[in-house]
Design brief:
mainly beta, 12 strands, single chain, Pnp Oxidase, Chain A
Length: about 190
C-alpha cells in the first residue's frame, strides 16, 4: 500500500461517487495537492489612476506566442485585486533567484509596497515597474474570467525587457523559495 493520501474528487461526467473518493475537494485538500507543484515566481504591478499596486503570483503562464498572450490569476482576497482588475495595462515581472526580496515585498500584506521610491519607477507609458527585475513584460488586459474566489486575467504582451543569457529562476515549492540550477537538471 502506498503512503500517498487519497484526495477526494467528483467525477463531473458521472455525477456519482467512485470507490475511495468522496464528492468535492476541500480547500485544504486542494492546497495540499498543489503544494508539491513548483511554479515560477512573478510580481505583477498596475495603476488604475489611484496609485500603484503590486502582488506576487505563481499563476503566471504563457498561452500563445502569436499573438503573444499570458494569463495570471488574482485572488479576491488580495488588496491589489480591485486596482489590477480595473487597470487597462499591467507589468508582469519574471523573477530570478536573487530577487526573493522583491517577491516577499509584494507578497507582504498591510504594507506600502511602493514606499521605497529607489526600487521602482514608471515606464514612459505610466505603469509602475521594478527595474531590477530580471525581465518584465508590459501588456494590455484583453479579457477576464471569474473563477471561484479568483479572477483569471488574460494579457496581450506589448513590450518586454529580457536580458541576454539565462538566469536561474526564482521558484516557489511547498511554501518555500527555491532556485533552479545545474544541480537540479535531470539529464535524459
Amino acid at each position: 500500500m502506498s503512503d500517498a493520501q487519497t484526495i477526494s474528487t467528483e467525477d463531473p461526467d458521472q455525477g456519482s461517487r467512485r470507490a475511495g473518493f468522496s464528492v468535492g475537494l476541500s480547500p485544504d485538500e486542494f492546497k495540499r495537492a498543489f503544494r508539491n507543484h513548483a511554479a515560477g515566481v512573478a510580481v505583477i504591478t498596475a495603476d488604475d489612476g489611484n496609485g500603484p499596486v503590486g502582488l506576487t503570483a505563481t499563476s503566471v503562464f504563457s498561452v500563445s506566442a502569436e499573438p503573444a498572450l499570458l494569463v495570471f490569476s488574482v485572488s479576491a482576497q488580495s488588496s491589489s485585486a480591485p486596482t489590477l482588475l480595473r487597470a487597462e495595462h499591467v507589468v508582469v515581472h519574471l523573477l530570478a533567484e536573487g530577487q526573493r526580496d522583491l517577491a516577499q515585498l509584494c507578497a507582504t500584506s498591510g504594507i506600502d509596497r511602493f514606499a521605497d521610491t529607489s526600487i521602482w519607477t514608471r515606464l514612459i507609458t505610466g505603469e509602475p515597474y521594478f527595474p531590477a527585475a530580471h525581465s518584465w513584460i508590459r501588456g494590455r488586459v484583453v479579457d477576464t474570467m471569474s473563477a471561484g474566489t479568483s479572477t483569471i486575467v488574460a494579457v496581450q504582451a506589448l513590450q518586454a525587457q529580457v536580458p541576454e543569457g539565462e538566469a536561474a529562476p526564482l521558484v516557489y515549492h511547498n511554501r518555500t523559495w527555491h532556485s533552479l540550477g545545474d544541480a537540479s537538471r535531470i539529464e535524459l
